[in-house]
From TrEMBL, chains A, B:
Alphabetized PANTHER family for the sequence: POLYPHOSPHATE:AMP PHOSPHOTRANSFERASE, POLYPHOSPHATE:AMP PHOSPHOTRANSFERASE-RELATED
Keyword Transmembrane on entry: no
Full protein name: Polyphosphate:nucleotide phosphotransferase, PPK2 family
Domain called Polyphosphate kinase-2-related: residue spans: 37-260
GO terms for MF: phosphotransferase activity, phosphate group as acceptor
SUPFAM superfamilies: P-loop containing nucleoside triphosphate hydrolases
Species for this entry: Herbiconiux ginsengi
InterPro entries cross-referenced by the UniProt entry: P-loop_NTPase (IPR027417), PPK2-rel_1 (IPR022300), PPK2-related (IPR022488)
Segment forming the signal sequence: none
One example of a Gene Ontology biological process annotation: polyphosphate metabolic process
Keywords tagged on the record: Transferase
Length: 283, 283
């Protein structure tokens, strides 16, 4: 049998990377921590019912001066399931407490600013859970693969990211970083399915095929980036992503453990409840 | 029997205000268009399954140059169910295509700007469905009730709002305005429940009791505002809100009809599908 589904720190510990990161040693079709799809869906559905209460506590806490927020950073190759994971994990929660930002190829304006500029603008306010579909990590992955900046500049960016995330954490943001680790064959299947269905054609981009040729270079770039930026304050997790039911579950559980770890209660009334009841009944 | 649930324009027409608006003539506990809770939930669940596809089409369309977006403006007295309605209606849709903004009492910075300044910043981008929990209408309701500005200024604001919304609509935004019309007794019940449960105390504000004393003034302000700003391009709907299952259904159906009205298909591939399949298979 698997561990108790809500075992504190279980999923986060299980999927935490160890340094130096070697992606080839992590099976993209594995399902560590859960037996099969049925078991996964049972845990997923149970947590989908309890997660909104934890989210509501985070939100309520912020109205009474609490500074906690959560940032979930999702990285992965095309079709790794970043958007779908947000949809499944965030679905049951109140949209009022969720923000989501998908980072695209930087615009001219964004390129004219330091690389963290566009990221700063999307950070979660207190009480919010924010999902990044791609992130500031694109700015160390793409430049390395396409040799857009020098290795000194890359090294400086890793350090800048670590410092940036340290400030976030000190300011009350829990930073959860997840790489959805997809197999190359499974990516081909997913891209083929987009070509097979006319209602999915809009999701396909011929550039995705070009990027497949750069697969080994992207993997190298991920390994270096994850190794350089896996910190105690903002650790990296690698989630096998060939099975969507598994990757959604893993991200949900990592988020759930983090929210449980905040150990928030309901804010106490800052007024006299009986007095207010009397006033209200008199109206 | 009720009309076919997806009858085009059925819900929007049924709940559209007629001028001049007389709120006292609209029963807050009525459920026009549906027989009972069971029937309502059946329609609601069915539309919850089909709505995400319409949303996805709106989103996909925007990636290929489409400029459509949707703005749902929710107004209503405290506890009218604005937040809960967003949660239920938006829940099944992809967070990627949803934005939500709850407008609070204006800050010093916001007050130093024209009243539409803070609203402009939260407008939906193409492809997005945006929910406003309160809105620019607070800036004609509160000032009228508390006599903060002259009647000439108020009149100017109604005109400014009409012009503002006309520009939005011309730019591709469908503007859906809904007042959740709550009964005064039902509000008392809802406020009492917040006092009865310690996990709801954070939602209670002693000022809510003070505002109950201003109930008739707020109703007057709503009647004038709705009458002055009910336009062909951005009509007002009044939704009876004593029953949450009804108000959620009504807002969902108004949104659903608007999305169906856009009549969007899936974007056609702007590449040669067979050629891309060959390229992909060769990788």
């Amino acid at each position: 049998m698997t561990k108790h589904p809500t075992h504190p720190a279980g999923w986060s510990d299980r999927l935490r990377v160890s340094s130096p990161v070697d992606l080839s040693a992590i099976d993209t079709s594995a399902t560590p921590g859960v037996l099969d799809k049925d078991a996964a869906e049972e845990i997923f559905d149970g947590t989908s019912r309890s997660l909104p209460k934890l989210q509501e506590k985070l939100f309520a806490d912020s109205l009474f001066g609490g500074e906690h927020s959560v940032l979930v950073v999702l990285q992965g190759m095309d079709t790794a399931g970043k958007g779908g994971t947000v949809k499944r994990v965030a679905g049951p929660m109140d949209p009022q407490g969720i923000t989501h930002h998908a980072f695209k190829k930087p615009t001219e304006e964004e390129l004219a600013h330091p690389f963290l500029w566009r990221v700063e603008k999307e950070l979660p306010a207190p009480g919010q859970i924010c999902f990044f579909d791609r992130s500031h990590y694109e700015d160390v992955l793409v430049p390395r693969v396409h040799e857009l900046i020098s290795s000194e500049e890359l090294t400086a960016r890793y350090a800048e990211i670590n410092e940036f995330e340290r400030r976030l954490v000190e300011g009350g943001t829990t930073v959860l970083k997840v790489m959805l680790h997809l197999g190359r064959d499974e990516q081909k299947n997913r891209l083929l399915r987009r070509l097979d269905r006319s209602d999915k054609h809009w999701k396909f981009n011929p550039g995705d095929v070009d990027d497949r040729g750069l697969w080994p270079l992207f993997h190298d770039a991920y390994e270096v980036a994850l190794t350089q930026t896996d910190t105690e304050h903002a650790p990296w997790h690698v989630v096998p992503a060939d099975k969507k039911w598994y990757s959604s579950l893993a991200v949900q559980q990592i988020l759930n453990e983090a929210l449980q770890g905040l150990d928030l209660g309901w804010p106490a009334a800052d007024y006299d409840v009986d007095e207010q009841r009397k006033r209200l009944l008199a109206t």
